[in-house]
Amino acid sequence: MKKFFSSIIMIIVALTMTTMVTGCSSSHDDSSEIVNPTTRQWLESATAPAWAVNWYGNTAKPTWNEPNTEDYENWMIIMVQIPDELKPFASADDQMSVFIDDVCRVVSSPAVDSYLPEENQDNDKFLLKIHGNEAADEDKDITLQYYNAKLSQLFVLTKPQTTYTQDIHFVSELVYGVSELFCPDILGGCVSYPVKSDVYVKIPEDVNPKAGDFVAAFVGDECRGVSLVAENSANIRVYGRQEGETVTFKYYSQTQGICSFSNTVTLTKEINIINVQLQ
Fold first, then answer.
1. Is the C-alpha dihedral spanning 115, 120, 126, 128 positive or negative?
2. What is the pLDDT of residues 105-157, one digit of tens each?
3. Helix (H, G, I), strand (E, B) or coil at 26
4. Is 191 left (phi over 0), alpha (psi -120 to 50) or beta?
5. Distance between CA atoms of 117 and 272, rounded to whole angstroms?
6. Nearest of 241, 242, 249 to residue 265 by alpha carbon
7. Beta-carbon count within 10 A of 157 CB
8. In 138-247, where does DSSP find H-type helix?
9. Taking the CB of residue 267, how many other CB atoms lie within 10 A of it?
10. Fewer CB within a 10 Å sphere, N or C end of the chain?
Protein backbone atom coordinates (compact mmCIF):
# COMPACT_ATOMS: atom_id res chain seq x y z
CA MET A 1 0.00 0.00 0.00
CA LYS A 2 2.81 2.43 0.89
CA LYS A 3 4.48 1.71 -2.45
CA PHE A 4 1.17 2.40 -4.24
CA PHE A 5 0.71 5.81 -2.59
CA SER A 6 4.38 6.68 -3.20
CA SER A 7 3.92 5.93 -6.90
CA ILE A 8 0.75 8.08 -7.06
CA ILE A 9 2.53 11.01 -5.39
CA MET A 10 5.49 10.78 -7.79
CA ILE A 11 3.14 10.75 -10.79
CA ILE A 12 1.28 13.82 -9.51
CA VAL A 13 4.55 15.72 -8.91
CA ALA A 14 5.83 14.79 -12.36
CA LEU A 15 2.62 15.97 -14.02
CA THR A 16 2.71 19.22 -12.05
CA MET A 17 6.31 19.94 -13.06
CA THR A 18 5.54 19.16 -16.71
CA THR A 19 2.57 21.54 -16.69
CA MET A 20 4.63 24.32 -15.10
CA VAL A 21 7.47 23.94 -17.61
CA THR A 22 5.08 23.73 -20.56
CA GLY A 23 3.17 26.76 -19.31
CA CYS A 24 6.34 28.89 -19.00
CA SER A 25 7.52 27.79 -22.43
CA SER A 26 4.16 28.66 -24.01
CA SER A 27 4.10 32.10 -22.36
CA HIS A 28 7.62 32.88 -23.65
CA ASP A 29 6.69 31.86 -27.21
CA ASP A 30 3.56 34.07 -27.20
CA SER A 31 5.48 37.16 -26.05
CA SER A 32 8.12 36.72 -28.74
CA GLU A 33 5.39 36.67 -31.41
CA ILE A 34 3.77 39.96 -30.31
CA VAL A 35 4.93 42.62 -32.81
CA ASN A 36 3.45 46.13 -32.91
CA PRO A 37 5.34 48.10 -35.61
CA THR A 38 4.40 51.66 -36.64
CA THR A 39 2.57 51.30 -39.94
CA ARG A 40 2.55 54.38 -42.12
CA GLN A 41 0.01 54.64 -44.93
CA TRP A 42 1.44 55.91 -48.25
CA LEU A 43 -0.69 57.19 -51.11
CA GLU A 44 0.98 56.55 -54.44
CA SER A 45 1.60 59.66 -56.54
CA ALA A 46 2.95 59.51 -60.10
CA THR A 47 3.86 63.20 -60.00
CA ALA A 48 4.81 65.62 -57.26
CA PRO A 49 1.79 67.44 -55.75
CA ALA A 50 1.43 71.14 -56.58
CA TRP A 51 1.30 72.23 -52.94
CA ALA A 52 1.57 76.03 -52.70
CA VAL A 53 0.20 78.89 -50.63
CA ASN A 54 -2.74 80.72 -52.21
CA TRP A 55 -1.57 84.34 -52.54
CA TYR A 56 -4.75 85.66 -54.16
CA GLY A 57 -6.58 88.38 -52.26
CA ASN A 58 -9.40 90.86 -52.77
CA THR A 59 -7.68 94.18 -52.04
CA ALA A 60 -8.37 97.07 -54.37
CA LYS A 61 -5.39 98.95 -55.78
CA PRO A 62 -4.29 101.57 -53.20
CA THR A 63 -4.43 105.27 -54.04
CA TRP A 64 -0.98 106.29 -52.90
CA ASN A 65 -0.22 109.97 -53.41
CA GLU A 66 3.23 110.73 -54.75
CA PRO A 67 5.13 113.21 -52.59
CA ASN A 68 6.06 116.71 -53.72
CA THR A 69 9.82 116.32 -54.09
CA GLU A 70 10.32 120.08 -53.57
CA ASP A 71 9.23 119.63 -49.95
CA TYR A 72 12.27 117.45 -49.20
CA GLU A 73 15.98 118.14 -49.10
CA ASN A 74 17.41 114.64 -48.71
CA TRP A 75 16.98 111.29 -50.43
CA MET A 76 17.81 107.60 -50.23
CA ILE A 77 17.77 105.03 -53.05
CA ILE A 78 16.94 101.32 -52.72
CA MET A 79 16.40 98.65 -55.34
CA VAL A 80 13.89 96.03 -54.17
CA GLN A 81 13.47 92.59 -55.70
CA ILE A 82 10.25 90.66 -55.13
CA PRO A 83 10.49 86.99 -54.00
CA ASP A 84 10.46 84.09 -56.46
CA GLU A 85 6.99 82.97 -55.35
CA LEU A 86 5.48 86.22 -56.65
CA LYS A 87 7.43 86.57 -59.90
CA PRO A 88 4.92 84.54 -61.99
CA PHE A 89 2.26 87.12 -61.04
CA ALA A 90 4.35 90.28 -61.57
CA SER A 91 3.07 92.85 -64.06
CA ALA A 92 3.58 96.45 -65.13
CA ASP A 93 0.45 97.34 -63.12
CA ASP A 94 2.15 96.52 -59.82
CA GLN A 95 3.21 99.33 -57.50
CA MET A 96 5.49 99.83 -54.51
CA SER A 97 5.62 102.63 -51.97
CA VAL A 98 7.52 103.69 -48.87
CA PHE A 99 6.02 105.48 -45.87
CA ILE A 100 7.84 107.26 -43.05
CA ASP A 101 5.76 108.47 -40.09
CA ASP A 102 2.61 107.57 -42.09
CA VAL A 103 3.63 109.94 -44.89
CA CYS A 104 4.19 108.56 -48.39
CA ARG A 105 7.77 109.31 -49.50
CA VAL A 106 7.80 107.51 -52.87
CA VAL A 107 5.50 105.62 -55.26
CA SER A 108 6.99 103.53 -58.05
CA SER A 109 6.07 101.14 -60.84
CA PRO A 110 8.41 98.24 -61.73
CA ALA A 111 11.84 99.20 -63.02
CA VAL A 112 12.16 99.04 -66.82
CA ASP A 113 15.03 97.38 -68.66
CA SER A 114 15.61 99.68 -71.62
CA TYR A 115 17.09 96.83 -73.66
CA LEU A 116 13.93 94.72 -73.54
CA PRO A 117 10.55 95.24 -75.23
CA GLU A 118 7.55 95.83 -72.99
CA GLU A 119 6.24 92.27 -73.35
CA ASN A 120 9.57 90.84 -72.13
CA GLN A 121 9.95 92.94 -69.00
CA ASP A 122 10.32 90.94 -65.77
CA ASN A 123 8.53 93.54 -63.62
CA ASP A 124 10.18 92.01 -60.54
CA LYS A 125 12.35 94.94 -59.38
CA PHE A 126 11.54 98.41 -58.06
CA LEU A 127 13.95 101.35 -57.99
CA LEU A 128 12.81 103.66 -55.18
CA LYS A 129 14.12 107.15 -54.50
CA ILE A 130 12.83 107.89 -51.02
CA HIS A 131 12.60 111.57 -50.08
CA GLY A 132 13.02 113.03 -46.60
CA ASN A 133 14.15 115.95 -44.48
CA GLU A 134 15.88 113.80 -41.89
CA ALA A 135 19.46 114.76 -41.10
CA ALA A 136 22.33 112.64 -42.35
CA ASP A 137 22.95 111.20 -38.87
CA GLU A 138 19.26 110.47 -38.22
CA ASP A 139 17.79 107.14 -39.26
CA LYS A 140 14.04 106.52 -39.41
CA ASP A 141 12.04 103.30 -39.66
CA ILE A 142 10.36 102.86 -43.03
CA THR A 143 7.25 100.93 -44.07
CA LEU A 144 7.47 99.23 -47.44
CA GLN A 145 4.22 98.41 -49.26
CA TYR A 146 3.87 96.29 -52.40
CA TYR A 147 0.69 95.81 -54.40
CA ASN A 148 0.39 92.93 -56.86
CA ALA A 149 -2.34 93.67 -59.39
CA LYS A 150 -2.86 90.13 -60.73
CA LEU A 151 -3.26 88.76 -57.21
CA SER A 152 -5.26 91.74 -55.90
CA GLN A 153 -2.96 91.41 -52.92
CA LEU A 154 -1.22 93.92 -50.65
CA PHE A 155 1.99 93.27 -48.72
CA VAL A 156 3.03 95.62 -45.91
CA LEU A 157 6.45 95.45 -44.20
CA THR A 158 7.54 97.64 -41.34
CA LYS A 159 11.33 97.90 -41.00
CA PRO A 160 11.97 95.59 -43.99
CA GLN A 161 15.04 93.39 -43.65
CA THR A 162 17.87 92.52 -45.97
CA THR A 163 18.79 88.96 -46.83
CA TYR A 164 21.10 89.09 -43.83
CA THR A 165 18.26 90.15 -41.48
CA GLN A 166 19.58 93.69 -41.05
CA ASP A 167 16.80 96.26 -40.75
CA ILE A 168 16.71 98.95 -43.43
CA HIS A 169 16.08 102.52 -42.23
CA PHE A 170 15.96 105.85 -44.05
CA VAL A 171 19.53 107.11 -44.11
CA SER A 172 20.24 110.25 -46.12
CA GLU A 173 22.10 109.64 -49.42
CA LEU A 174 22.31 105.87 -48.84
CA VAL A 175 22.15 103.71 -51.99
CA TYR A 176 21.21 100.09 -51.32
CA GLY A 177 20.22 97.08 -53.41
CA VAL A 178 21.78 98.28 -56.68
CA SER A 179 25.13 96.51 -56.43
CA GLU A 180 23.84 93.88 -53.97
CA LEU A 181 20.64 91.84 -53.79
CA PHE A 182 17.88 93.28 -51.61
CA CYS A 183 14.95 90.88 -51.39
CA PRO A 184 13.08 91.65 -48.15
CA ASP A 185 10.53 89.30 -46.58
CA ILE A 186 7.63 90.61 -48.66
CA LEU A 187 5.61 87.40 -48.24
CA GLY A 188 5.69 87.91 -44.47
CA GLY A 189 3.73 91.13 -44.94
CA CYS A 190 0.79 89.56 -46.82
CA VAL A 191 -2.37 91.19 -45.39
CA SER A 192 -4.43 88.03 -46.06
CA TYR A 193 -2.26 86.12 -43.56
CA PRO A 194 -1.84 88.24 -40.42
CA VAL A 195 -0.75 85.23 -38.33
CA LYS A 196 2.63 83.73 -39.21
CA SER A 197 4.79 81.09 -37.53
CA ASP A 198 8.10 79.49 -38.47
CA VAL A 199 7.73 75.76 -37.84
CA TYR A 200 10.83 73.54 -37.57
CA VAL A 201 9.85 69.91 -38.20
CA LYS A 202 11.88 66.74 -37.61
CA ILE A 203 11.11 63.89 -40.02
CA PRO A 204 10.76 60.34 -38.59
CA GLU A 205 13.50 57.89 -39.60
CA ASP A 206 11.02 55.37 -41.06
CA VAL A 207 10.04 57.96 -43.70
CA ASN A 208 13.59 57.67 -45.07
CA PRO A 209 13.80 61.31 -46.24
CA LYS A 210 15.79 62.12 -49.37
CA ALA A 211 16.90 65.26 -51.18
CA GLY A 212 14.03 66.56 -53.29
CA ASP A 213 11.31 65.42 -50.85
CA PHE A 214 9.18 68.13 -49.27
CA VAL A 215 6.76 68.65 -46.41
CA ALA A 216 3.74 70.96 -46.33
CA ALA A 217 1.48 72.51 -43.70
CA PHE A 218 -2.29 72.54 -44.15
CA VAL A 219 -5.35 74.14 -42.59
CA GLY A 220 -8.14 71.87 -43.73
CA ASP A 221 -7.41 71.20 -47.41
CA GLU A 222 -5.64 74.54 -47.93
CA CYS A 223 -1.85 74.57 -48.14
CA ARG A 224 -0.38 77.21 -45.82
CA GLY A 225 3.33 76.54 -46.28
CA VAL A 226 5.76 74.17 -47.95
CA SER A 227 9.48 73.46 -47.67
CA LEU A 228 12.08 71.13 -49.15
CA VAL A 229 13.58 68.61 -46.75
CA ALA A 230 17.21 69.02 -45.69
CA GLU A 231 18.47 65.67 -44.37
CA ASN A 232 15.81 64.80 -41.76
CA SER A 233 14.24 68.20 -41.10
CA ALA A 234 12.54 71.19 -42.72
CA ASN A 235 11.72 74.79 -41.89
CA ILE A 236 8.21 75.85 -42.91
CA ARG A 237 6.82 79.37 -42.79
CA VAL A 238 3.15 78.76 -41.97
CA TYR A 239 0.65 81.47 -42.91
CA GLY A 240 -2.58 81.83 -40.92
CA ARG A 241 -5.71 83.77 -41.72
CA GLN A 242 -6.64 84.02 -38.04
CA GLU A 243 -5.56 82.84 -34.61
CA GLY A 244 -6.70 79.41 -33.45
CA GLU A 245 -6.37 77.66 -36.81
CA THR A 246 -5.25 74.02 -36.56
CA VAL A 247 -2.34 73.02 -38.77
CA THR A 248 -1.62 69.49 -40.00
CA PHE A 249 1.33 68.17 -42.04
CA LYS A 250 1.83 66.07 -45.17
CA TYR A 251 4.98 64.63 -46.70
CA TYR A 252 5.88 63.91 -50.31
CA SER A 253 8.47 61.21 -51.00
CA GLN A 254 9.74 60.78 -54.54
CA THR A 255 9.95 57.02 -54.02
CA GLN A 256 6.97 56.27 -51.74
CA GLY A 257 4.30 58.88 -52.45
CA ILE A 258 2.33 60.99 -49.95
CA CYS A 259 1.72 60.40 -46.26
CA SER A 260 0.10 62.36 -43.44
CA PHE A 261 1.25 62.87 -39.85
CA SER A 262 -0.79 62.84 -36.67
CA ASN A 263 0.73 66.06 -35.26
CA THR A 264 -1.28 69.28 -35.08
CA VAL A 265 -0.23 72.85 -34.28
CA THR A 266 -2.47 75.74 -33.22
CA LEU A 267 -1.50 79.12 -34.65
CA THR A 268 -1.26 82.13 -32.36
CA LYS A 269 0.25 85.57 -32.83
CA GLU A 270 2.37 85.16 -29.71
CA ILE A 271 4.23 82.03 -30.89
CA ASN A 272 6.53 82.74 -33.84
CA ILE A 273 8.83 79.69 -33.73
CA ILE A 274 7.49 76.16 -33.19
CA ASN A 275 9.42 72.87 -33.00
CA VAL A 276 7.59 69.70 -34.02
CA GLN A 277 8.73 66.05 -34.03
CA LEU A 278 6.46 64.56 -36.69
CA GLN A 279 4.82 61.21 -35.88
1. positive
2. 999 999 998 888 888 889 999 999 999 998 766 778 889 999 999 999 999 99
3. helix
4. alpha
5. 43
6. 249
7. 20
8. none
9. 24
10. N
